[in-house]
Amino acid sequence: MMVPLANSGFLELIEVAFSYPGNEFSLQGINQHFQQGEFTAIIGANGTGKTTLGKLLAGIIKPEQGQVLIAGRDSREISLGQVGKLIGYLFQQPDRQLFTPTVREEIGFALEFNGSSPEVIKKKVNDMLDIFSLADLAGAAPYQLSAGEKQRLALAALLVNQPQFLILDEPTTGLDPVRKQKLAEVLKELQGKGIGLVVISHDLSFIRSNADRVLVMAGGGLIAA
Ligand SMILES: Nc1ncnc2c1ncn2[C@@H]1O[C@H](COP(=O)(O)OP(=O)(O)OP(=O)(O)O)[C@@H](O)[C@H]1O
Ligand SMILES: [Mg+2]
Fold it and tell me: Which ligand 1 atom sits nearest the alpha carbon of residue 45?
């Protein structure tokens, strides 16, 4: 189905239900739109399903009932490769998305994969190393980085691809106050360029200073704060 709905969001949840086999947890009847240029925070207690919702929005898992629309396309009908061109997704444990021998290669990987020229790759990677204060670590092995450095590297590797929408699961984990402020500035700038943001977080002061709206996960549903 390729028909974008009138007044539709870039990401849409329509009567979404989801559960995992073998446990009691479930999400039900979730309806929500996420627009470009908007910063939406999702908060809620541990185990309420925030990460699950983020994965549904990123097309990593598919709803049991209802639909997730990504740029107007059903998440069941769009490949992860296609989603990856539209959406940047930061895992709650960024270790899971770091896999190259060096920091520099990690940031350049997707550009390399897409056939960008060496000059373009160098320029874009250097910009990211700069923005996320990783230049001194360009030759380091990602697995040896500190938690906050890994978090910044995972963000850099996402943003270098210029996604149209970002889903960030606990992006401030491990960041010191200076790096957190820098991240807030980077996200504001992206938002100004029309990029949509869904930020899952327990960091209420970060949310309060940056989000346009706050949604709460509770009781298997998503409600306005
Ligand atoms: N792959 C999985 N298989 C089975 N159950 C899972 C799986 N992932 C998560 N769950 C269960 O689903 C529920 C929601 O988990 P989820 O990770 O979405 O919560 P969360 O709100 O992100 O929590 P936190 O604040 O701790 O990150 C939990 O009860 C969890 O145990
Ligand atoms: Mg989580």
Answer: 25
Beta-sheet strands, E only, within 143-212: 165-169, 196-200
Interatomic CA distance for residues 169 and 42, integer angstroms: 9
Over residues 8-57, the pLDDT tens digits come to 789 999 999 999 999 999 999 999 999 999 999 999 999 999 999 999 99
CB proximity list for 138: less than 8 A, separation 6 or greater? 102, 103, 104, 129
pLDDT at 7: 52
Q: Which positions ≥6 away from 21 have C-beta within 8 Å?
A: none
CATH architecture designation of domain 11-224: 3-Layer(aba) Sandwich (3.40)
Which residue's alpha carbon is nearest to atom 2 within ligand 1? 20
Phi, psi of 118, rounded to the nearest 5 degrees: -55, -35
Give the mutation target among 26, 27, 42, 48 for probing the ligand 1 site: most ligand atoms within 8 A of CB.
48
Arithmetic mean of pLDDT, 136-158: 95
Domain ranges of the chain: 11-224
